[in-house]
Amino acid sequence: MSTQSSFVTPAPPLRAYASTADIAVSAPLQRDAGDRARAMVSPKDLRTEPAPVRFIIIALAVTFLTVFVVLPLVVVFASAFSKGISAYFSALAEPEALSAIRLTLLVAAISVTLNLVFGVIAAWAIAKFDFRGKTFLITLIDLPFSVSPVISGLVFVLLFGAQGYWGTWLQAHDIHILFAVPGIALATIFVTFPFVARSLIPLMQEQGTQEEEAAISLGASGLQTFFRVTLPNIKWGLLYGVLLCNARAMGEFGAVSVVSGHIRGETNTMPLLVEILYNEYQFVASFAIASLLAMLALITLVVKTVLEQRLDDGRSPSDYSRND
Amino acid sequence: MSTAVARRSSLPGFGLTMGLTLTWLSVIILIPLAGLFLKTLELSPGQFWEILTSRRTLNALKLSFGLSFAAACVNLVMGTIIVWALVRYRFPGRRLFDAIVDIPFALPTAVAGVALTQLFSVKGWLGAPLAELGIKVAFTPTGIFIAMVFIGIPFVVRTVQPVLIDLDPEIEEAAASLGANRWHTVFRVIMPSLIPALLTGFALAFARAVGEYGSVIFIAGNLPNVSEIAPLLIVIRLSEFRYADATAIAVIMLLASFLIILIVNRLQRWAQTRIPAH
Amino acid sequence: MTIEVKNIVKKFGAFAALDDVDLKVGKGELLALLGPSGSGKTTLLRIIAGLDWPDAGEVRIDGEDALGHGASERHVGFVFQHYALFRHMTVFENVAFGLRVQPRAIRKDEATIRARVKELLDLVQLDWLANRYPSQLSGGQRQRIALARALAIEPRILLLDEPFGALDAKVRKELRQWLRSLHSEIHVTSIFVTHDQEEALEVANRVVVMDKGRIEQIGTPGDVYDNPATAFVHGFIGESIVLPVEVTGGSVRLGGRPLNIAADGAASGASKLFVRRHDMQIGPAGSGSLEGAVRHVRSFGPIQRAEIALSGGEGKTVIEIDAPRDRELQAGEIIGLQPRRYRIFAAQD
Asked: Taking CB atoms and an 8 Å limit, are C53 and B7 in contact across chains?
């Protein structure tokens, strides 16, 4: 029998961090602006430390974050513009840069689309039905998170490389997976595999199956139920998963580096180009590309925060309160 | 008419969606991993041992795991301080600092790598003053350590944050009313309830640092036996077509990470029985 | 539309939610499935709806085998305990849903759909809420919209799963009466599940009392109250005094002492005597089969409710009786009690 799962906030940002299913982040709890406000203390509170201690703690936190996070970010832009604005833009207009940008966009489009479709399908299978081995399945889906990017690339080399399992067969048929776009796409799909599913599964589990059952009892088919009832309910979670998936797809370095072969103008994504240019001491060019990626990261963070707000709002306690 | 009815669910589509999910899962994850597994089996235990205990491999593994551990420890301490300040105090720019905690997670690793190198190289904004003090960061194990600290920042903070936010204020008030001074309250009452989350954050930071590639290889010297991390060794072996070696190292890394995570899980469960979560 | 359920078995692991259940529902009936939690009533309802499947047995709707079809094909209206309204649709869109997802061949045009929705909203007297969202409605309003939504598809059967369970007492009472009057207006065959016996007795034409996956009794509310078939039914419906008695060859004993009541064909052995509170006749000490001391009396309206400690058995057995107020009882008084109407069931039941 299906019952509405108890009311919990899925907190997607945390789940996105968990690198193995074994490490379950502590059960997400309902949090809103009120909770945050209550958690904060005012200086005269019983519940706070003496002023000097507070000062030191804040100073430590701010200094640490400034040194380790703010400065690196600033350095990227400072170095990119160190020789002026025109140098910046001409670096970006280089043919290598443009082809790297094109390749990155292409690979991201492929991975995001495929993982979106299959992520939704997997989330439906997992969240709306009961079956044995569900935890195992979720662990498998989580797997790419726990694996080093280099190992993610390694597994594809083992399959498709010149000395890989299918290497000779591929060479005989003149099919290029490694050192070509297909390999890069596969490696990227691998590392971004979990994002959409992991964002949707807790959300769909929390929403339960009652609305879908109601739709079915009213005569809707499976597809009608999905598009008219489920999809509108999960749209923010879906967007969130797609956003993270995209950010990772565009920024992936280790796995792609292993499979790409670094062929200039052909199989370099933007992160790979950053590496190549840096190693050639072309700092402005390298940081110019890096700055584009950094901007992508910042935009992703902003949109992510907005979406988190939406996700929290969408499940306000007034929904389905038990009493009048 | 029918006395035995097949098991069905109220919602349609199970067969189809499960089928597609398993297919996609197999193609993208299971088959590649099977390849890894098979390759591992091709090695005899003797060969495996030889690869593993070769001087270069051992040093790379020691470096990777050792520095990751140290970096995770730093993140444990600093992460706690940061999350405490972000959750419990008000100060100008708090919201901004809260937001930037996510940057190491969101920033592409290559960008982080070149940025940190630039910052800590002998001519860099931070590297130069440190060089005056005789501390060289870039292209040494210290550089690797710095990079690992960078990427681990969000893990402890974000894992502990919700727990700290949801802490019942009444618990602290009760402790205070019973005469506990602030030190006692924090370290005997509050911290223990954070331990599971802290351990989780630590494990995540550790696991991430061990496997990290992009952020680290720029600032590392990449000198064999000195400043060469295990993932880099894997890449080098692959380029030498020594697939077996690469595989062996990869498998050891996977197993060791898995083991560590298992231990931390145990610790967590133990902590939860001693200090029941609310 | 008639429903016939035969030999239904449903297990969840080792737990038998339904154990060989048979039921026939006639056209236009308003039937209550009544029982405590775990009795299997919701499971049975969901099986009829097509939201769950039995492990064995038959379900026939209008003579046709229903088990070959899923919920979307059975043309039943289901009202969920927690309403299950589509949270992102307005009230209007919720009610229109069933009409909008019909296959093109039979789907009505938009104008007709609109008219029908308006009709239904008028029926439940909530047309003024048409553009609100479910989160903006009270529980009682949500339930009525859920009902309107289910009725929109002109179902052959209406199934309601504890429809008023999530509402508070006053709203519950109002909606009960409203459901009864609605049913007398629309006459669609309806089954509702409840654990509240007052609700079942007040609203339904017939009541099906269930316990532990089995049907204990089926009958009209009067039947089930006045002539309970089993100990469970007697104990579950209305208040009862239960006394452990021993039946030997036609005579009934309580704690060794014979009671002056007929065994009424009850089998010999350990048994239980069930008497309704108001069926215990009182009189002066020694006038009845039982005797006891009045411990506490409180009166309300035409009744006095007294706590009596029965003599014999060390005065440990305390019962509550309802008596008319023509003779006021005093605390400490010794009175005689005689069961006027009673049932005896074997202790195992």
From this structure: yes
Q: Which chain B residues are within 8 Å of C51, Cβ to Cβ?
A: 10
Would you give the distance in Å from CA C280 to the centre of its chain?
Answer: 26
Q: Which two tokens stand for residue B220?
A: 């590392």
C341 Cα to chain B: minimum distance (Å): 43
For residue C272, the distance in angstroms to the closest alpha carbon of chain A comes to 36
Both tokens of residue B226? 């000195």
**Longest Cα separation, chain C:** 80
Instruction: Give the minimum alpha-carbon distance from B176 to chain A in angstroms, rounded to a whole number.
Output: 7
- Best of C15, C44, C72 to substitute, by most chain A Cβ atoms within 10 angstroms, is C72
A187/A249 Cα distance (integer angstroms):
10
Q: Does C52 touch chain B (CB under 8 A)?
A: yes
Amino acid at A144: P
How far, in whole angstroms, is CA C262 from its chain's centroid? Answer: 31
Which residue do the tokens 């789907």 mark? C107
- In the block, tokens 């990449």 appear at B222
pLDDT string in tens for chain B (278-residue length): 443 445 577 788 888 999 999 999 998 888 888 888 888 888 888 888 888 889 999 999 999 999 999 999 999 999 999 999 999 888 898 888 998 999 998 999 999 999 999 999 988 899 899 988 888 888 899 999 999 999 999 999 999 999 899 888 888 888 878 887 888 888 888 888 888 889 889 988 998 999 999 999 999 988 888 889 999 999 999 888 888 889 999 998 888 878 877 887 787 777 777 665 44
Distance from CA of A320 to the nearest CA of C (A): 7
Nearest 5°: the CA angle C179, C182, C186 is 135
Size of interface A-B (CB pairs under 8 A): 333
The gap from C-alpha B221 to its chain's centroid, in whole angstroms, comes to 22
Measured distance CA(B111)–CA(C232) in Å, rounded: 74
Distance (Å, whole) CA A116 – CA A144: 16
* Interface size, chain A vs chain C, as Cβ–Cβ contacts under 8 Å: 93
CB-based burial, B206-221: b 16+ in 10 Å, e otherwise = bbbbbbbbbbbbbbbb
Please provide the DSSP assignment of C109-158 as one string. Answer: PHHHHHHHHHHHHHHTT-GGGTT--GGGS-HHHHHHHHHHHHHHT--SEE
Min distance A236 CA to chain C CA atoms (Å): 13
In B, which residues are within 8 Å of A62 by CB distance? 85, 91, 93, 97
Locate the chain B residue with the closest alpha carbon to C49.
B10
> Are the C-beta atoms of B207 and A146 separated by less than 8 Å?
yes
Query: What is the maximum alpha-carbon separation in chain A?
Result: 77
By the 10 Å C-beta count (0-12 exposed, 13-18 middle, 19+ buried), C349 is classed as middle
- The continuous run of DSSP H or E covering B147 comes out as helix B141-165
Strand-pair category, C30-34 with C206-211: parallel
**Which residue in the block uniquely carries the two structure tokens 């999530």?**
C166
DSSP helix/strand/coil, C204? coil
> What is the C-alpha separation between C23 and C57, in angstroms, rounded?
11
Binary contact (C53, B5; C-beta < 8 A): yes
C-alpha span between C226 and C237 (Å, rounded): 10
**Within 13 A of B226's CA, how many CA atoms are on the CB side?**
8
From A28, A40, A294, residue closest to B90, measured CB to CB: A40
- DSSP class per residue in A240-262: HHHHHHHHHHHH--HHHHHHHTT
* Helix, strand counts (H, E) of chain A: 17, 0
B94 Cβ neighbours under 8 A, 6+ residues apart: B85, B86
**Tokens encoding C32:** 């209550």
The residue in chain B having the minimum alpha-carbon distance to the alpha carbon of residue A272 is B110
**For residue C69, which of B260, B113, B8 has the smallest C-alpha distance?**
B8
Question: Hey, which chains touch C, using 3+ CB pairs under 8 Å?
Answer: A, B
